[in-house]
Each structure stands twice: as C-alpha cells, then as structure tokens.
Write a structure and sequence with these properties.
By secondary structure, this protein is mainly alpha-helical. The protein contains eight helices and three strands. A hairpin with a 7-residue loop joins β2 and β3. α4 packs across α7.
Length: 182
C-alpha cells in the first residue's frame, strides 16, 4: 500500500518542473503555460483543479480528501499525473479555437464544454474519469500521452482512443506552428 503524501512546496516545484519539461519535449509548452501559477492550497476535495476563466491558476491541495480515500482503497495518483491533467485543461483554455473545432468533436464525441457524461467503456475511454465529460476525456488522454511519451499502450489501442491521440498530435502541430492562442 502506498503512503499518504502531504504535498510540500518542494515536491510541488519538482513535479511542476518535471511536467513542464515533458510538455516542452512534446512541443506543447507555450508562454501562457510558463506564466501560469501553480499554487499550493491548504486542503481540497480533489487532487487538483484549475480556475479556468478566473485566475487561471492550477491549485494543488497540501491535503486532498480524494487522495486520502484513494490511499485507503489502494489506488495511487502521482502528483505529476495530476499536473499533466491540469495542464491539459490549461492548454484547452489557451487554444480555445482548436477545442471548438469539428476535429475535437469528432475525436471526443462532443464539444469540449459539454457536460454530458457517458458510461465507461475501455474501448472508448482511457480511464473511468475520462467518461465524465469530453473535457475530462481530453485531459486524461493528454495525461496518458505525456506519461507514455506519446506511445499508445497496446491495451488502449482502440479506434476511439487512437482517434483522440491523433487529435493530440494535430494539436501539437498547431501549437508548434505558432497558431495564436484564443
């Protein structure tokens, strides 16, 4: 069983640098992301969140109620994975036009802003949480994409998930070309 880790500033800074490096290697890093505050907050329910449309900052709780629940259930989510997921939402916020495109809706089954959830199906969703909405589906796919260095694990190599990863690769090309944010 894993240990419950209280998040410290040092741990958060190390994980943020690691994820920033990964995003740079995958050509997904932008000036907007570089200037995005990642802050430690005292307590929260979730592993982390981003204030899209507000302050824009990524918040990571020192103590997370969800992390404590996961500990007792034998589950583990790394701090790096939480940051990969939250930076995915930040990328979507920065490149809104790309996420309002037909390409996104085709890949993810609906508009990014849609709150429609679907039943989890491992042939369609990379994780249970990905089934909760198209925006979470994208964030979970990008988190896995970064974690697996752009190589889709065979257990997830289904037509639906490959289509989502093709969108991520197209997104990388758009970002690399310097397409303007918003």
């Amino acid at each position: 069983m894993s240990k419950i880790h209280i998040i410290t500033h040092a741990r958060l800074n190390r994980a943020t640098r690691k994820v920033a490096g990964e995003l740079k290697r995958h050509r997904l890093w932008t000036n907007r992301l570089r200037n995005l505050p990642v802050v430690l907050v005292p307590v929260g329910f979730a592993h982390g969140w981003i204030w899209v449309g507000g302050t824009g900052e990524i918040c990571i709780p020192r103590v997370s109620l969800l992390k404590m629940r996961d500990f007792f259930m034998g589950n583990y989510t790394s701090l790096a994975d939480v940051l990969r997921h939250e930076f995915a939402h930040a990328i979507a916020d920065c490149h809104r036009g790309l996420f309002r495109s037909r390409g996104f809706s085709t890949a993810y089954g609906s508009a990014y802003e849609s709150k429609i959830s679907s039943e989890y199906d491992p042939k369609i969703h990379i994780s249970c949480y990905a089934a909760t909405s198209p925006s979470e589906d994208f964030a979970e796919n990008l988190m896995h994409f970064i974690r697996h260095r752009g190589n889709l694990p065979p257990k997830h190599s289904t037509p639906a998930i490959r289509r989502k990863w093709r969108f991520i690769n197209a997104l990388r090309r758009e970002i690399e070309s310097g397409r303007a944010c918003w």
